[in-house]
Amino acid sequence: MKRLPPLLCVIWTLTLVATTVVAIDALRIAAWCAIVITIVSVITRQSDVIRTSTLWLFPLLLPLIVIHSFFNPTFPVTSQLWGTIPFRSDGIVHAINSGSKLMSLMIAAVLWRYVDAQRLFNWLVLLKCPVAFLVMFGQSHGMLILLRRRAENVFLAQRARGIAAGPGIFAKVRALPSVILPVVLNALGEADVRAVLLASRGFGAGVMTVLGQPGPRKEEMALSAISVLGWAVLELL
Amino acid sequence: MERTSYQIAKRCALGATCLALNVGLGKVSNLLSLPITFDVVGTILASALLPPWVALLVSAMSSVLGSLIIHPAFIYYIGTQIAVCLAALGALRLGLFNRPWKAITAGVGIGIVSAIVSAPVTAIVFQGVSVPSLTALNVLFMASGNSLLKSVISGSLIIESTDKAVAGIIVWLILKRLPKGVATTPIPK
């Protein structure tokens, strides 16, 4: 899979967020989202971005429609479904408009899952972003996988020792400290080992530099300019 | 090895751990099928173990990491994480994490702060849709004639104060069992 250049991610994020503020109707928002998703799919050479956005949007979209079409008292009741359930047609329009804005915000966040992390890191170092901040973020990403795996192992081990994790909410709450404490205390204890390793590798000893000057390429600059222009034309139409 | 570089590295490693705890502890509630998110345990621990500015950084970064790993909605609650961190720092200064009942009180207080800060985001950006338990409560309040914002605030107060009270007691348990020398700043008694 090809990764997205950081410059394009920044430009598309800004336009997607701005769309939610300036767009007049849901159609324009949907159109811009479709354009961005298509370009991202072409660049990354896979349709995973569409699947991820849909998976993240639908759990929000369905309750949104239900809340505003049936329950939000701000909108007047226009008809009764099966003679009993109040239905608000203005509510469904509002839900669709809000849903399109949410879709735009979701895609803006999804883009960053496909960013070229190495180039982003280099850019941030060149932009004088504190290295401690970058290392902390990178380390936490790595630790997360370890933490989840450890939680599973501790859970299985405690069950094997006879600590009941159910049935019933009280049994689960009682079992909670026996699972959560070993995971957290172990992770906090390991921080010291990680610190020694980081310091021995020269972390914090001097100013960090990156080899080469990885500036944006010409085609990325051109695509960014076309994106901003295209977005402006779509909003002005 | 210089002591200063080790100290920077220690803060960094501990901050990364707290950050990972904020995002990764949801796995424990998934395993136990509990309706608790544990998304602030790392923030409260960072407030106790790290200098305030690092704790604030950890709280803000956990929203970014959560939005990349779990769901993009996390990024819009960055203000909630920062508010929780400030409330936790205040609670620690008052020594509210040295007794279980005090920790529960601190948790409830943090939950109230969290609800007040997150409710406008849920109401304005997400139009009342949030985690399933909170969405169900919002619907219940709206069905009884309350406005969207009022329903979200009421629902958030109930869910957040319960959730954070559990987080408070867990943090107390962790701080009680924590080996000496883990914290980079003295934990207030």
Describe this structure in words.
The complex is a heterodimer of chains A (237) and B (189). With 237 residues, chain A is mainly α. In chain A, 73% of the residues lie in helices and 3% in strands. Chain A is flat, with a radius of gyration of 24 Å. The relative contact order of chain A is 0.13. The model of chain A has no long low-confidence stretch (mean pLDDT 85). The model of chain B has no long low-confidence stretch (mean pLDDT 88). The interface between A and B is large, with 69 and 67 residues.
Oligomer: heterodimer
Structural class of chain B: mainly alpha
Describe the main β-sheet of chain A briefly.
Answer: 2 strands, antiparallel
How many H/I helices of chain B?
8
Shape of chain B: globular
Question: Terminal Cα separation of chain A, in Å?
Answer: 35 Å
Number of helices of chain A: 8
Overall 3D form of chain A: flat
Low-confidence stretches of chain B: none
Hey, which two chains have the biggest interface?
A-B, 69 and 67 residues
Helix content of chain B: over 70%
Order of helices and strands of chain B: HHHHHHHH
What is the radius of gyration of chain A?
24 Å
Mean pLDDT level of chain A = 85
Strand content of chain B: under 5%
Number of strands of chain B: 0
List keywords for this structure.
heterodimer; A: 237 residues; mainly alpha; 2 strands; 73% helix; B: 189 residues
How do you describe this structure in short?
The complex is a heterodimer of chains A (237) and B (189). With 237 residues, chain A is an all-alpha fold.
Sequence-ordered SSE layout with sheet pairings:
The complex is a heterodimer of chains A (237) and B (189).
Chain A: H1 6-22, H2 26-44, H3 48-71, E1 79-81, E2 85-87, H4 89-110, H5 117-126, H6 131-160, H7 169-200, H8 218-236
Antiparallel strand pairs in A: 1-2
Helix pairs in contact in A: 1-2, 1-4, 1-8, 2-4, 3-4, 6-7
Chain B: H1 3-24, H2 26-31, H3 41-49, H4 52-69, H5 78-93, H6 100-124, H7 132-143, H8 148-177
